[in-house]
Design goal:
By secondary structure, the chain is of the alpha+beta class. It has one domain: Alpha-Beta Plaits (2-Layer Sandwich). The protein has three helices and two strands; from the N terminus they run ααββα.
């Protein structure tokens, strides 16, 4: 199962240009929705399910 973001808990890394999940993802799949300031997986089908994004998320 590919990673996903719990939107209620995501704070967009407090408005930084690059979130922790964007920085750590080996496939560069994680993106920041600048309107909602929430991270999201732009291509769940290509996720390796390594869960690096989950581990680094504050």
């Amino acid at each position: 199962m590919p990673s996903f973001v719990i939107t209620e808990k995501c704070d967009g890394c407090k408005g930084q240009d690059k979130t922790a999940c964007m920085y750590i993802c080996p496939n560069d799949l994680m993106m920041l929705d600048k309107d909602k300031m929430k991270g999201y997986n732009q291509e769940p089908n290509y996720c390796w399910e390594c869960y690096c994004c989950v581990k680094i998320c504050p």
